Amino acid sequence: MSTSPVTAAPLDPVALRADFPILGEQVNGHRLVYLDSAATSQKPTAVLDAERAFLTHANSAVHRGAHTLAAEATDLFEDARAAVAGFVGAAPQQLVWTSGATMGLNLVAYAIGNASVGRGAPASARLALAPGDEIVTTAIEHHANLIPWQELAARTGAVLRHIPARDDGTLDLDAAATLISPRTRIVAFTHVSNVLGIVNPVAELIALAQQVGAVTVMDACQSAPHLPLDLPGLGVDLAVFSAHKMVGPYGVGGLYGRTDVLEALPPFLTGGSMITTVTLDSAEYLPPPQRFEAGTQPVGPAIGFAAAVRYLDAVGLENIHAHEGMLAARMAEGLRDIPGIRLLGDAAGVERVGLWSFDVDGVHAHDAGQLLDARGIAVRVGHHCAAPLHSRYGITASVRASAALYNTVDDVDEFLDAVRGIRPYFGVE
């Protein structure tokens, strides 16, 4: 049973691949070249084993039963919280389990909405929105960091504003400095765009928000698997991430929050396990993080998530970032040399992760993706849950190739060779 990665410094992706059983599969008679980790990553044996071991030997409800299995399950569950919190530099009480980043963002938006109608403790009033207050997000967000704020604005009368993207995919910080004003109550942004792959200047955005006392909310889905993160050190108030993008299981994610901010948020979901006292007419709630963890929790996935962050830690986030940066540079160099390929977010001199989206002139992204799949190459096609960003660049869909720690130079070269054949195959050269 594999319990730790087989790696070296610098990172050896060929050795790592042995830890990921699915990478030995064939697709359409070709070896699998998996370049869709931005959508969901593959899982190492250590993660699969951790979840199975819990279900086999300690499966029980947490924070409830007084029997031995319940106590063991609770210990494993809370040990997992400590491991995942530590991975992003946080204390265990600053990490709320969610079903993923989408739920985390909705939790925050709906909790602020509850504060806006007078729910919660006295401290919740500082989060309340009123008509004319402003929420600032960006033009490059995933729908999960856009639609909840649209809904919150509609419920409270707040005004939603957007920091624009420049032609090269970078955020317009001059516009941000103008948009973030004393009326701004929330600033929500992605750390890394799931379309552009650019690491955004979040320190500058956080500083602008802090100057006006706004709450900051960061989508860390595309950074947590690829960059060392210290969320308290970064100064962000709230941040979300998903296990399935971090070589972990489906169905679990994390919401990090500064202690005072979590304590001010009213509950979002209510029910069992998040209360102290209940009568037929009223209830009192536990402090965070349990206040936000109503009902049955994803115990097995949380334990698998802990195994995933331990795996990433053992490989080393610095090693991962350097390796993926090398792959991204090779990918970009090759794509730029192919006629009819337009890279999105091809900004010079910016930090990025191993992700590129591109448009193929004369060929729909879905057709391009099917041709790549015929050669065993898995990429993402569509608007990647970022339709407004694609509209900004005058297209409805793109092809996205995203690398991870287990990808090799051979993967990238096979991908580039296949992309060279797309336009000739469809007769548009």
TrEMBL record:
Residues 33-415 form the Aminotransferase class V domain. The keyword Transferase applies. GO terms for molecular function: cysteine desulfurase activity; pyridoxal phosphate binding. SUPFAM superfamilies: PLP-dependent transferases. One of its GO terms (biological process) is cysteine metabolic process. Its cofactor is pyridoxal 5'-phosphate. Its EC number is 2.8.1.7. Pfam families: Aminotran_5 (PF00266). It comes from the Bacteria. CDD domains: SufS_like. Keywords: Pyridoxal phosphate, Transferase. It catalyses: (sulfur carrier)-H + L-cysteine = (sulfur carrier)-SH + L-alanine. Belongs to the class-V pyridoxal-phosphate-dependent aminotransferase family. Csd subfamily. NCBIfam families: sufS. PANTHER family: CYSTEINE DESULFURASE (PTHR43586), CYSTEINE DESULFURASE 1, CHLOROPLASTIC (PTHR43586:SF8). Catalyzes the removal of elemental sulfur and selenium atoms from L-cysteine, L-cystine, L-selenocysteine, and L-selenocystine to produce L-alanine. This is Cysteine desulfurase. It comes from Microbacterium telephonicum.
